[in-house]
Amino acid sequence: MTCALALRKLTKTYNHSLHALKGIDLEVQAGDFFALLGPNGAGKSTAIGIIASLINKSAGQVLIFGHDLDHELNAAKRCIGLVPQEFNFNNFEPVLEIVVNSGGYHGIPYKEACRRAEKYLKQLDLWERRKDIARNLSGGMKRRLMIARALVHEPQLLILDEPTAGVDIEIRRSMWDFLRTINREGRTIILTTHYLEEAENLCRNIAIIDHGEIIENTHMKGLLSKLSMETFVLDLARPLHEELSLPGHTLRRIDDMTLEVDIAKQTGLNQLFIDLTQKGVQVLSLRNKTNRLEQLFMNMVEESRAA
Amino acid sequence: MKHLHANAIALKTIVVKETLRFARIWIQTVLPPMITMSLYFIIFGGLIGSRIGEMEGIRYMDFIVPGLIMMAVITNAYSNVVSSFFSAKFQHHIEEMLVSPIPNSLIIIGFIGGGLLRGLTVGVAVTLVSLLFSPLAVHNLAVTLSVVLLTAILFSLAGLINGVFARTFDDIAIVPTFVLTPLTYLGGVFYSISLLPEFWQHVSLINPILYMVNAFRYGLLGVSDMNLWISYAIIIGFIIALYLFALYLMNKGYGIRK
Questions:
Q1: In this predicted model, what pLDDT tens digit does every residue of B131-175 receive, in sequence order?
Q2: Which CATH number among 1.20.1250.20, 3.30.70.1560, 3.50.50.60, 3.10.50.30 corresponds to the domain A229-306?
Q3: CB B96 to CB A49 under 8 A?
């Protein structure tokens, strides 16, 4: 399988003292939907900045679809579309012009750039706003504008650095659908996000970076299977005025109408409901207390720091 | 060949974008120099100039026209590129170009294109204003056009380098205020250096703007304090040096890459 991105011993040191990346190795296969996660300051944006050639690396090698950033910079750049964390378009330009100009920078003839801009702006529900000055768009629209701009040269690799930050849930879901579609069409996507639900829903493979080092690099399913316990929140039909204990389950009464329960993954939920029914407790609804990936992420980062 | 075509499209995109940028705000970019130069013509040329009489055998109003046109070209070419480049850095939209496969040399040329076009647009506008006060005389069209083009290129490059180094909005005003304006005023716009004491004549020779103003004046009026070929050599020498320096800064990513 073709390697969309290969990082070899990638190192970045700021001002001879701050080690943002400590020789990381990472491979992302073509066609993958890959999550790069890590706490703030872990080195995610530095890695992305180096891949997009916005940050000079201190050492190591970056290969994008086999093109070495040191020797075939422009060939590598043609393969990448970048959606950065910060808005980085001219706020005083119209939406359509921003997207078409980006096509122009990539050498796409004006008419073709206009055709593609129309296609992506329509897909991202921005076509009606194409004549608006960018600063008049909402935060969610600005994020979608950056996605349309990153796609206008139809890159093989799309890198999204927190693309849904500050976006409401409805738009976030529609962006997920859009990203799934373009990934199905064959485009490799690398995503960093603080919404771990987003990574869990979208990505097939995941790397976790902390303090400039990759502390986990695996399949999403494999990673989630490591989680041995899950915590569920139960909303009750009738008030429960006393603590409740059930053999084999760890229960906590949060308030009269809410219970929390820790369940080992292999146990399943059936026995819990049987036991609760026998005690006369009727459950209206149930939900995960925390996102599963969030729990794992926290465990891993804590373990890494303890080590 | 394919990449050559792609680069041509990229260059055209930058030049058109830069041109639209100053054209959209023509009230801020083209109109003010026309008004300022009108005042210069009225005050220095009309009111004071009528008392001065002639300079180098030429009516004073006619004498200052080339210098004032050149002053407008210099300041506008410079300020267009410095403000545009710094704004692109400040708003981070310079990254649109940095992540795309445009060679740094073309980014520089694209910005110069914008500065050149604004310098020429303002130059033409000020020339039209000058027609209200002085008949247009062109002694040598080739010299006139080549000097104004080369000077606009030179100061666009200087503006770009200022933009690369600038970290705050103050930094883009320092050079025009404390360097460019004094050098222009002392560059023979309003007087012939033959009027100066000998010592100050020698000091004036280190001012590159003196050569540009005089070469342009030669193109229009056929009189100059400086040798034309030395002027060309100095202008072209500066262009080469500034271009190479700008390219070095861009390749190093100074001020634009971490």
A1: 998 888 899 999 999 999 999 999 999 999 999 999 999 999 888
A2: 3.30.70.1560
A3: no
Give residue-wise pLDDT tens across range A100-129: 999 999 999 999 999 999 999 999 999 999
Q: Please tell me the distance from the alpha carbon of residue B144 to that of residue A223, in angstroms, as a whole number.
A: 72
Would you say A153 and B97 are in contact if contact means Cβ atoms under 8 Å apart?
no
Orientation angle between helical segments A95-105 and A139-151, nearest 10 degrees: 30
pTM summary value: 0.84
Q: Is B88 on the interface with A (CB under 8 A)?
A: yes
Is domain A3-224 in CATH 3.40.50.300, yes or no? Answer: yes
Give CA–CA dist A161/A305, Å, rounded: 24
Residue A152's SS3 state is coil
Between residues B191 and B68, the one the model is more confident about: B68
Q: What is the DSSP letter of A128?
A: G
Per DSSP, the three-state class of A205 is strand
Domain positions in chain A are: 3-224, 229-306
Percent of chain A with pLDDT over 70: 94
Nearest residue of A to residue B87, measured between CA atoms = A90
Would you say the C-alpha torsion A9, A74, A96, A120 has a positive or negative sign?
negative
Residue B226: which of B177, B175, B192 has the closest Cα?
B192
Q: How far off is chain B from A87, nearest CA to CA, in Å?
A: 8
Measured at the alpha carbon of residue A300, what is the angle toward residues A299 and A302, in degrees to the nearest 5?
Answer: 65
Of A105, A110, A153, the CB nearest to B97: A105
* Amino acid (one-letter) located at B130: S
Give the Cβ contact number of residue A168 at 10 Å.
11
CA distance B141 to B156: 22
3-state secondary structure A167-188: CCHHHHHHHHHHHHHHHHCCCE
d(CA B78, CA B98): 22
Contact at 8 Å (CB) between A217 and A26?
A: yes
Cβ-Cβ contacts under 8 Å for A170 (sequence gap 6 or more): none
Can you read off the two tokens belonging to residue A212? 């400039």
Using CA atoms, how far apart are residues B80 and B82, in angstroms rounded to an integer? 6
Distance in angstroms (rounded) separating the CA atoms of residues A247 and A253: 15
Q: With an 8 Å Cβ cutoff, are A88 and B93 in contact?
A: yes
Give the Cα separation of B210 and B204 in Å (integer): 7
Euclidean distance between CA atoms B107 and B98, whole angstroms: 9
ipTM of the shown complex: 0.87
DSSP alpha helix (H) spans, chain A? 44-51, 73-78, 95-105, 110-123, 139-151, 169-184, 196-202, 220-224, 270-278, 292-306
Size of interface A-B (CB pairs under 8 A): 79
Q: Which of A49, A52, A104 sits opposite B9 (nearest CB)?
A: A104
